[in-house]
Structure formats: structure tokens, C-alpha cells
Sequence to fold (402 residues):
Amino acid sequence: MKREPTLEDMWPRVRAEIAAARRRECWRRRTWRAARMAVLLAVLAGIGWLAFRTDTRDSATVLTAALWQTGEVNPLKVMTDDYPLRFGGVLVVARGQSERQQVAGLNALTGTTIWTSQTRFSKCRMARHDGKVFVLGSQDGLEWECLALEAATGRTLWRHREAGRPGAPPSTLAAMSGGVCWTEGNQIVSLDAETGALRWRNNLETKGSVSAPLIQGHTVYAADGRRLRALRLDTGAAHWSLTLPAGAEVAGLGRPILESADDKILVAYRGAGGGGVLCAVDAQKPEVLWTRKVEAPVRLRYHQGRVFLRAQDLSAYDAATGRPLWWVHVGGCGSLQFKDDKVFLVDAAEQARILGLDAATGQLVWTRDALGSCQGLVISETTGFIASNNRMLYALAMGVKK
Fold:
């Protein structure tokens, strides 16, 4: 007679079925958790994406870590690599609305106003040298007045104005101990830096756009796309003139850019077809040392034996030979600043941010969110001052001190 199976006989099978049921329940719960986690991550990713997009456009969000910020700081609307002007603990900027702009000195630690000049203008150019601020301003864009201010107090040292002389919009100012210079149409104007008296005015006899002047030692350099000219700083008399490589093809395509590189003068200018030319010229004699075809130039700087050219990308070249060293893709048109062995710039290719690159290799070594700026980045010790396109000036902790 067949014996009824006992619980002891059935236990192995029951235990196996219980284990299988537990495994199925475990997998069901894991699947449910995974699904819920996937939904949660998707929601968080969406929120983060929206927040990131908002950060790069909302100054109150992006720059909450700013040391300080202040408004109504105007761009100079000319290419300059030194804005805001920094004199130790004083930052000098242009502030105000439309025709009521004024030059102001700000405390670099707090952003509070130290002084404000009484002269008002609608446009201006500024340069600094030896504790002085040199301002070239205009109310109507036709007649321009040059004045010198004491950077610490804003006290006016001298003024120079030639009444009834409307001219083409002037270039960026160049200031050295020997004089203050700018180009106006096809002329170079030089004033005495101590008194503001007119020293000389030289007609370059060109129809092209003349570069901002470059002062090196006792010589003033200017280029018009066809030729580079060297003039005596004290008298304006010509030292020499040099035909630039491919110069006849590019005249009239915008102001060339000049930069001093020890014993060389670097010249970058736009070429036919949207490209550009970069060349190095001996500072003492009319001799081209090397030439490179480049993209249309926007910024040109020299630092520690390297040439940095900002166009659609940022490229570095060996100053002695013109040999390409590296390039990185960055957007925007802002100035290049250097601190120790790093080059800093505002990248606006996708989302605006400040980049710190190794000057020797181009490798990214530091970054932080910021607002767009086509000019106005100055680095000092561990602080960066950025004049953004929304007319705000921010002081940011840069973290660049070794």
C-alpha cells in the first residue's frame, strides 16, 4: 500500500518553491526600485539642466559666490586688454547712462565708489601709466577731449581739446612716460604725458584703417594693413616703413593689431577671404622675421616667449620662430589675461565661463561659471574682476595663487 508523503518528504520541494517565490519577489522589487530611480534621475537631470541654463544667464544665480558686484559699468567699445584699469587697491571704470557717463574709481576690496570725475561723455577710451588715468572722451562722437586724472583721487591733472576739429573715431589710447598717443583717421596724435600739450600730429597718407599705436621705448609703431611704420616718439619723424606680407590684399579690412614682444613687433591683420596674417617684425629695422596664415584675428598677446592669438579658436605660437604650439576651441572675443604660467579668458562657445589654461600646453587647469564679456577681465593675485556684457562688474575668487 502506497504510503502518504509526509511533511518531511515534501519539505525539499516546498523549500525550493519558497526560495523561487522569494527570488521572484526580490526581482520584482528590484525592478520597481530601478524604475522609480530612473524616473527620479530623469526628473533631477531635467531640473539640473534647467538650472544650468538659468545659471549662465542669471547673474544673481551664477555669481552668488562673487566677492562683490556693482552696476552701470560700461564697456569701452574698443578693443583693449586692460579694463577695468587697476591701480593697486583702486579700479577705474566708465559708469553711467548714455551721454552722462563718467570715470569712477572703485575700492578693489569692496566695490564701493571712491571718487567720480565731473567730466561727462557718451564715448571714451582709457589707458593707464605711472599712477595716472588718461581718458579720451567725447559728448557727440565728433570732437574729443583728452584728460589726465590722478588714479588715487580722481583729481584732474590736465585737459587737452582742439575745438572745431571733428575727426574719425579714435583708436585705443597708448600711454608711456614719454607721451600719450592715439590714431584718428589716418593720423597719429601725440601729447606730452606730463602737461597734455600737443607734441605732434603725423599724417600717414593712407586710406586704410590705422591700428592703435604701440609705444616701445622711444618709438611709436602703427600699421594700416599695407605697411608698418616706426616713428620717433618725441617728434613723430619717420624711422622706417615696411611693406607687410600680403599687405596689398588686406587694406581696409579693419584695424590691424600690434603687440610688443621683447625685440619684436607682432602684427596681426585680416586677409582676403576671411582669413588673416600674423607676422613678427624686427623692432629696430624693417625686416619680417616670420609669417603665419591664421584665422581672422580678434586679440593678440605676448607672454613669456609665446604669442597668443584669439580668433575663432585660441592659438599659441613660438615667438622666436612662429611655430604653432597648441590651439583650443573657445568662443567669444574677450581679452586674454596672464597670471604666472596660466592664460585666462572668458569662453562663450556654449555657456559662458572663465577658463584658466596652462600657457605652455593649452590644457584646462581651472574653470568657473561666469557671464559673457567681450572685454573686461583683469586678474590680480587671487581675485578676478570681470566687466560683463550686462554692464555689471564682479569681483570673483579665482583660486589662482600657487
In short: The domain at 324-402 is CATH 2.40.10.480 (Thrombin, subunit H). The mean pLDDT is 81. The CA atoms of residues 181 and 190 lie 4 Å apart. The radius of gyration is 30 Å.
